[in-house]
Amino acid sequence: MRNPWRKIGMLAGMGLAAVTAAAQGVPALPALPAPPPLAQVGGRELAGGVVRGAVSARPLRLTLGQAITRGLQANLAALLGASNVREAEATHLAALSALLPQVQASAYDLRQKISLATIGLNFPGVPLIVGPFNVADARAYLHENLINLSAIQDFRAANAGQKSVRLSYAQIRNLVVEAVSHQYLLTLADASQVVAIRAQVRTARTAEQQARDRLRAGTISRLDLVRAEVELASERQRLITARNALAQQKLALARAIGLPQAQIFRLVSALPNTPAPKFTQAQVVRAAWAQRPDLQAALALVRSDQLQVAAAADQRWPRLSLDANYGTIGHTFTRNHPTYAVEGELQMPIFTGGRIRAQVAVARASLRAAEDRLADLRAQAAQQARDAWLNVRALRRQVKVARQSRSLARQELTLARDRFRAGLGDNLEEIQAQQQLALANHNYIQSLYVFNLAKISLAAALGVAAAQWRQYLEGTH
Predict the structure, then answer these.
(1) Residue 423 above 90 pLDDT?
(2) Is 445 exposed, middle or buried (0-12, 13-18, 19+ CB in 10 A)?
(3) 102 neighbors 142 (Cβ within 8 angstroms)
(4) Which residues neighbour 409 within 8 Å (Cβ) at sequence distance 6 or greater?
(5) What is the pLDDT of residue 34?
(6) What percent of the chain has pLDDT over 90?
(7) Residue 17 and residue 11: Cα distance in Å, rounded?
(8) 423: which residues sit within 8 A by CB, 6+ positions away?
(9) Residue 477 — pLDDT band, cuts 50, 70, 90?
(10) Which helix (H) or strand (E) is 274 found in, with range?
């Protein structure tokens, strides 16, 4: 997320520009919009990252694809999601172990002397103390649940839960791609603003020098020079603020993808201007319902809770287990005799004090909550898909209009400059035209930035951002 102090800095840095623009009827430049809140996983997790690698003395050339790859490897949300998958795999393995035979072995060599009196044996002529003597035993033990319906349902529930966690991790990867793309695109937009404002500074400097020359020639008044000087100072202030905003945004991007904060890097990708894949509104809703991993994860979680209900209810059924051991026992390991034991046990719950009924009720309540969350998530997915589709459609047209406005503003500046050079008036028209061009440049960069945000947000809303981000942002497969 963008630092909230950035907007304050932008307003403070553009103070002179705002005063001048307000006096001449030209609006001041607004700040670029921050990325939308990423509350699905947590903005702090998506904004954070674990630093990978050491600082290189050579500046790093960073493409959008490299930033996304680094984000998937080092972003905090992705790392925590991978940890959740490993935890679910361990839970699944623990549930499986309850169904598999448990085999263990033991061996011991005992030398002892015992008192028969301590166990109530006291016969005439028989010594009370026996020993010392040796006992050597080596034995293998087997335990197997032959019939345990509750454990079987627990295993099936753990299997569905593991699937849910893996699908949730896939959705987290989509969100990480979306978040990193947002940060990269915002950095590109800030860099484009710096380039545009730097060009505006050069234009304002040229206009100021022309006004100074004409003042010496006595063809204009001192007011014209002051206007040019104010415009030059305003553009310089905008440049300082824009450079500072770019530096802060590069820090935010570095943190999200695990780059060391001291690493110098340059963005080598440009703001894309490719059309998004074409869908109808009905198609994006169907695609979201069919493709989004979080929806599939919620569905798997519902299945897991259904099996948990069955597992709790199946505790009422009998359980049959087998215990066996085989080994040798004697005075020494070399002179032992084989022995074994086989035991079958049937357990039947008769009265549990309401424990099973309570566990079934808890499992059913969890199931209802999971079903409600699934229904809500389906509605949310449909709304997000529609919103993203509407944004892409509207912003595509906005980019076109902003490009045309920028072209017209350039023509206006050329005409105003020619009129001033020809002595057909003062430089007020030229100053206003410069400010209109600055605003048009800003609007074009902003429209291009938010259009790309809308495209990657559409990919995330459809659940394909991690796999198809190139198609949405670069127009390639």
Answers:
(1) no
(2) buried
(3) yes
(4) 433, 436, 437, 439, 440, 441
(5) 47
(6) 52
(7) 10
(8) 219
(9) low
(10) none
What six digits make up the tokens of 15?
A: 């103070």
Strands (E), 2-99: 60-62
Strands 102-115 and 129-147: antiparallel
Average pLDDT, the chain: 85
- Report the alpha-carbon angle 463-155-83, nearest 5: 45
d(CA 385, CA 122): 88
* Interatomic CA distance for residues 202 and 200, integer angstroms: 5
**Among 22-31, 303-312, 324-333, 448-457, whose mean pLDDT is lowest?**
22-31
Q: Is 322 exposed, middle or buried (0-12, 13-18, 19+ CB in 10 A)?
A: middle
The yes-or-no verdict on residue 451 having pLDDT over 50 is yes
Residue 368 CA to residue 308 CA, distance in Å, equals: 12
Which residue is it, tokens 């593991």?
Answer: 162
Helix, strand or coil for residue 105?
strand
Answer whether 239's CB lies under 8 Å from 32's CB.
Answer: no
pLDDT at 169: 94
**Contact 243/194 with Cβ under 8 angstroms?**
yes
Tokens of 60: 């790093």
DSSP label at 27? P
Residue with tokens 């034995």, as numbered in its chain? 139
Residues whose CB falls within 8 Å of the CB of residue 405, separated by 6 or more in sequence, listed in order: 440, 443, 444
Query: For 158-172, how does the pLDDT look when each residue is reduced to its tens digit (9 = 90+)?
Result: 999 999 999 999 999
What are the counts of helices (DSSP H) followed by strands (DSSP E) for the chain? 12, 6
Q: What is the mean pLDDT of residues 87-101?
A: 91
Asked whether 311 and 150 are in contact (CB, 8 A), the reply is yes
Tell me the C-alpha distance between 78 and 250, whole Å. 20
Is pLDDT above 90 for 217?
no
Name 89's Cβ contacts closer than 8 Å, sequence gap at least 6: 162
Could you tell me the residue range of the domain that residue 313 belongs to?
Answer: 4-473
- Taking only Cα atoms into account, the Rg of the chain, rounded to an integer number of angstroms, comes to 37
Q: Helices 428-461 & 465-473, crossing angle to 10 degrees?
A: 150
- Distance from C-alpha of 236 to C-alpha of 240, rounded to nearest angstrom: 6
Q: Is the peptide bond before 132 cis (omega within 30 degrees of 0)?
A: yes
What gap in Å lies between CA 350 and CA 64, rounded to an integer? 65
Cβ atoms within 10 Å of 122's Cβ, excluding its own: 9
Structural domain count, the chain = 1
In DSSP terms, 344 is beta-bridged to 322
- The answer to whether residues 136 and 331 touch, using CB atoms and an 8 Å cutoff, is yes
Give 217: exposed, middle or buried? Use CB within 10 Å, 0-12, 13-18, 19+. Answer: exposed
Label residue 244 by pLDDT band (50, 70, 90).
very high
For 409-433, give one letter per residue: b (16+ CB within 10 A) or e: beebbeebbebbeeeeebbebbbbb
Residue 297's CATH number? 1.20.1600.10
